[in-house]
Inverse folding.
């Protein structure tokens, strides 16, 4: 799952007093951002094994600090605390933490068993990466439904041009992830590409949501 992780961010951004869309996009991929950062010094680890799943060649064999349920919840709480410190809005902090925590549960759908509860076996994962006919429509449905909800429940003076540009970038990024060339072996290019992609998408989301407000009910 890649852009599907942003669905909770888009839904949460429609709530009153929510954190900004850019902040919520960071929350949505926070544990993957942490994973990419921890790959560099070798604290967490992965390797490339072509064919390990039908859709993804990454063998994510050591990631106890980011992709265990306990680790994910700790990242979520810390990020929520950071948002509270920056905004002094309880709703924004709780919403950001919930979006960050959603990452593990969405990963659970697509990963082969490489997720843990606290960094040790047993390992969990329903393995939809081995079933593209299910995983791909599911990802499209998640992000498409969330984008539609976001554009319906929020508004801006210039209309929906910015969210549509964000949607186009998300579609482009997902197409590269699905159909683009894969790295033949692990190198630092992998975490560097991940961090660049997350920064680009979060920055674009911040721009897309900058002038949007919750839509008022008709006649209000």
């Amino acid at each position: 799952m890649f852009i599907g992780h942003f669905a909770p961010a888009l839904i949460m951004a429609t709530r009153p007093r929510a954190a900004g869309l850019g902040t919520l996009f960071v929350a949505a991929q926070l544990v993957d951002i942490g994973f990419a950062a921890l790959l560099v010094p070798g604290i967490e680890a992965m390797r490339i094994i072509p064919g390990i799943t039908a859709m993804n060649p990454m063998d994510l064999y050591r990631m106890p600090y980011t992709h265990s349920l306990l680790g994910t919840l700790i990242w979520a709480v810390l990020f929520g605390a950071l948002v509270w410190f920056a905004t002094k809005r309880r709703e924004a902090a709780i919403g950001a933490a919930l979006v960050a925590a959603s990452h593990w549960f969405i990963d659970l759908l697509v990963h082969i068993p490489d997720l843990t509860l606290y960094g040790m076996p047993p390992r969990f994962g329903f393995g939809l990466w081995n079933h593209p006919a299910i995983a791909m429509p599911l990802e499209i449905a998640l992000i498409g439904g969330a984008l539609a909800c976001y554009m319906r429940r929020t508004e801006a003076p210039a209309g929906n041009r910015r969210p549509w540009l964000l949607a186009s970038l998300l579609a482009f990024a997902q197409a590269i992830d699905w159909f683009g060339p894969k790295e033949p072996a692990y190198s630092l290019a992998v975490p560097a590409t991940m961090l660049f992609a997350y920064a680009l998408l979060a920055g674009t989301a911040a721009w897309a949501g900058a002038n949007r407000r919750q839509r008022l009910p008709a006649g209000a």
